[in-house]
Amino acid sequence: MIRRFQDMLVAFLTFDGHKVDTATSAEVAMQKVAARRYDLLLTDLRLGGMTGIEFYKHLATHDRTMAGRVVFITGDLVNPETLNSWTASRNSCLSKPFTLDDLRTILHRLDHHVPDQQ
Questions:
Q1: d(Cα 53, Cα 36) in Å, to the nearest integer?
Q2: H or E segment at 5?
Q3: Contact 73/43 with Cβ under 8 angstroms?
Q4: For residue 32, pLDDT beyond 80
Q5: For residue 91, which of 58, 20, 30, 43 has the smallest C-alpha distance?
Q6: Contacts within 8 Å (CB) and 24+ apart, 75-83
Q7: What pLDDT was estimated at residue 44?
Q8: Domains of the chain, earliest start first
Q9: If you compute the radius of gyration of the chain from its CA atoms, what whole number of angstroms results?
Q10: What is the pLDDT of residues 63-92, one digit of tens each?
Q11: Which region holds residue 17: left if phi is over 0, alpha if psi is between -120 and 50, else beta?
Q12: What are the angstrom distances between the C-alpha of 60 and each of 72, 84, 104, 117?
């Protein structure tokens, strides 16, 4: 995700009462996920070095529970390859541009399916 977009999401989620952690790359995110559990993982489908789908596939191989908590963000659902990859994952996706209400809806829906990690 572009840094400014990521900063906006962090500010919104924090304001909404969520604890937020960020990663500068998919590789850093994989290290963080290996070290602790997260209720939700937001990832853009286009990342530097590794795609969001590659990140998801890594999680699906190593930690299926965390893979199920991935929500993709993309502005490229018109690309057949992107659409097929996302559809195959069966995970939620926010299509850019999206509203903060769209994000809240997904958070609310997923919140009812994620066991409390405390």
A1: 21
A2: helix 3-15
A3: yes
A4: yes
A5: 43
A6: 76/45, 76/46, 82/45
A7: 87
A8: 3-14+25-111 (3.40.50.2300)
A9: 13
A10: 999 999 999 888 776 666 766 667 777 888
A11: left
A12: 14, 17, 25, 20
